[in-house]
Each structure stands twice: as structure tokens, then as C-alpha cells.
Amino acid sequence: MKKSTAPRVLIATGLEENDVRYATGLFAPDPFCLLVQGSRLHLLVSALEAARARQCCPAAILHTPAQLFADAVPRRRTLNDQVLAWVRQLGIHAVQVGPYFPIGIARALERGGVKVLLADTPPFPCRAIKSPREIACIAQSQRAAVAAMRAAISCIRRADISASGLLRCQGRALTSDHLKNLIEQLLLQHRCSAEGTIVAIGPQSARPHEVGSGPLRAHVPIVIDIFPRSKETGYWGDLTRTVVRGRAPAAIRRMHRAVLAAQKLALARLRPGVESRAVQQAVENFFREAGHETRLSPPGQECGFIHSLGHGIGLDIHESPGLRNESGRLSAGNVLTVEPGLYVPGLGGVRIEDTVVVTRTGHKVLASCPKKLEV
User: Fold this and answer.
1) 244, 222 in Cβ contact below 8 A?
2) 305 and 339 share one domain
3) 352 and 218, same structural domain?
4) What secondary structure does DSSP assign to 216-235, as a single string?
5) Rounded to 5 degrees, what are φ and ψ at 80?
6) Domain check: are 297 and 356 in the same one?
7) Cα-Cα-Cα-Cα dihedral of 294, 371, 228, 129, to 10°?
8) pTM over 0.85, yes/no
9) Residue 166 per-residue DSSP state
């Protein structure tokens, strides 16, 4: 089948927002539209954003609603009306859209006589290869994550252990929320936002996405996962460490040694041309041979290495490429996380995560942070 050459239309909202930001550099509180026609970019923005759009993306051809309608009495038009009038004004009879394109706008285009085709490829596959500027932006967010992680672990290390095993700081119980507040304050000092920070204690940490709650305790694992986003550039960082205040249970020490070794094994394999799933499968085999079997059922009782090894990171916290059981090969300039983990219901979990860039000869960790278990 011949590949369609119809222009691609994207709406800067939801899951398409960062594709538009990548192509134009423009971010705005209200939805706006991008049309990619060969090498030409057309932007449909409100008059409020026109000056910023011209500054952010001088190569784009700008359009505003006032140019689309010749009403004697100006009135507010819906985004559906604007996109249809815009596409018609450009003389376009068919467009491509992605799987997350708003269905209401797609229906409005079809009712207006514009054929809507579903694209089967991402609009900017080049997003997977980060430029030196993008790598620097991610590294900046990652350094903020490291600063917050060091502060959080220092707080745990300084805490007193009560007779009942609770951690206490300045005479008060040290809680998951207290530590998350400390992390978020540090990230704000680095001009980063934080949402969904994980500080999961003991059995909570056996669930990889459990954000955690309640008082922190000694002698149990505490999984801390910090993923800041720069308020200036929009690029993310991602960092996870597992610590125990006091003496860790023997099973957790064994899990931590295995996770450290698995991450080392995975990092040693990162280089251009390597198949992503080969790295995932190498870690799966390592854990299996080390006696850490994975069980994916029953629901809520999953055990072992139950998630993918890593994910791409950039303007989205999860983007291509991934380290998972899918086809695809790594390229120099890919930025991704490497985060093996082991989880045992009722006991807890251990996860260690770093963000790295694939180089021409291997990889580079974007910001280093200690990986000691007991503090």
C-alpha cells in the first residue's frame, strides 16, 4: 500500500502536546494546532499566543482565528470550527491524524468534506534521538533528582529509631508525606516540579507504583522514586534508590545485591545496535538463574521482576525507546532509564534506577548517586 502524503495535523493537548512542543518549542495553556506539510509547519494559535509562537518557532507559518473568519460581528468559534476553516483555507482535502487525536475534531473535519486518515507512525520518530541540548536539559533535571535523593536519604540516616522501630525526626514521627514534602521543596529550588513522588515503606514497596503513606520504620526497605520535570524546558529526570535505616532483613540484602548486579549487567550491554529486548531478556535470565523467579498471577500478588527494564525519557516521562520485550535497536543519542527491580508481596521491593544516554561506544550515566542499601 502506498504511504499517504497527506499533511499531519496535531492538537497541542493531551498525548499530542509534547510532539507539538518538540516540533515548535511552544507551550501554551490552551490547545493550539500544528499542521505538518512536508517541510513546512503551519501553526494555528490564538491572538494571545501569536507573538510567542513567532518567537519560539520563526520558521512556522502562523494563522489566527481572525484570519479564518470574515464575520462582520466577531464571535467565538469552537476549536472544531477553527480547524475545519484552517484546513479548508489551506486547500487541503485529506489529513493524517494520530491515534490520540480528538474524535470530535476528526468528525467535524469529515462532516466538512475533509478525509481523515489514521497515521500508523509517530509524527516525529526523531524524538528518540536526543540532541546535545536535549541531553543537557535531561541531565539538569536528573541532577535535581540526585540533590533531592541525597537530602531524603540524609534525613532518613539522621532519624532516631524509637523502641517500636519507628523513625523519628526532631521529636516527631518521620512519615512518607514528610519525606515527599522535603523532596518537592528541593526540586522547586532547582526549578523543577514533582508529581507522584514515591516513598513506599516495607510491604508497600512490593507494588512498583505505590506512592507510599504512613510512618517510616527501621529495618524495612524504603523505595524512593523521584521524577522531576524542569519548569523551564519541560524535560524530565528519573531516579530510584532503595534504602533501609538500620539492619536490612537477609532477604532484602540478597534482593539488593541481585538488583545491583542486574543493573550492572544491563549497563554493560548498552551500546548502539543492541536489540532492546536482548537487554531485557538478559536481566530476566540473570534473575531466574539467581533464584528470583517471577510470578505474574494472581492479580495483586505478582512477585519477582515484574516490569520492563527501562523506558525512554524526554519531554514525556515515558517515551521511545524502551528496554522491554519488543523489537527495536538502540542508537547513539537515546536517553533511557535502567531500573531493574525485585518484589515480594508481604516483604517489600528493591528497585535501583538511573537515567543514561547511549553513546557511540557505550553509555553515560547523566548524574550519579550512591546505591548503598543500609544507612
Assistant:
1) yes
2) yes
3) yes
4) -BTTS-EEEEE--EETTT--
5) -55, -50
6) yes
7) -70
8) yes
9) B
Distance CA 331, CA 129 (A): 7
Closest to 172 measured CA to CA, from 149, 155, 151, 197: 155
Contact present, 198 and 152 (Cβ < 8 Å): no
The pLDDT tens digits for 176-211 are 999 999 999 999 999 999 889 999 999 999 999 999
Looking at the structure of the chain, the number of domains it has is 2
Q: Measure the CA angle with vertex 27, ends 25 and 32; round to 5°.
A: 105
Q: Is the same domain home to 50 and 142?
A: no
Domain interval for residue 295? 129-365
CA 38 to centroid of chain Cα atoms: 29
pLDDT 10s digits, 159-169: 999 999 999 99
Q: Residue 367: what residue type?
A: A
Task: Identify the CATH number of the domain in which residue 58 sits.
Answer: 3.40.350.10
Of 5, 4, 13, the residue nearest 34 (C-alpha): 13
Assigned domain for 155 exists: yes
CA Rg, the chain, in Å?
24
CA-wise closest residue to 300 among 221, 222, 207: 207
The single-letter code of the amino acid at 256 is H
Mean pLDDT, residues 12-16 taken together = 93
Sign of the torsion formed by the C-alpha atoms of 313, 316, 322 and 324: positive
pLDDT band at 5 (very low <50, low <70, confident <90, very high): confident
Checking DSSP bridges between strand 341-344 and strand 348-351, what pairing results, if any?
A: antiparallel
Phi, psi of 369 (to 5 degrees): -155, 135
Sheet holding 160-161, edge to edge: 160-161, 167-169, 172-173
What pairing do the DSSP bridges indicate for beta strands 40-44 and 61-63? Answer: parallel
Name, in order, each residue with C-beta under 8 angstroms of 127's C-beta and a sequence gap of 6 or more. Answer: 19, 22, 314, 315, 319, 320
Query: Are 119 and 141 within one domain?
Result: no
* Alpha carbon distance 52, 56 (integer Å): 6
One domain for residues 133 and 118:
no
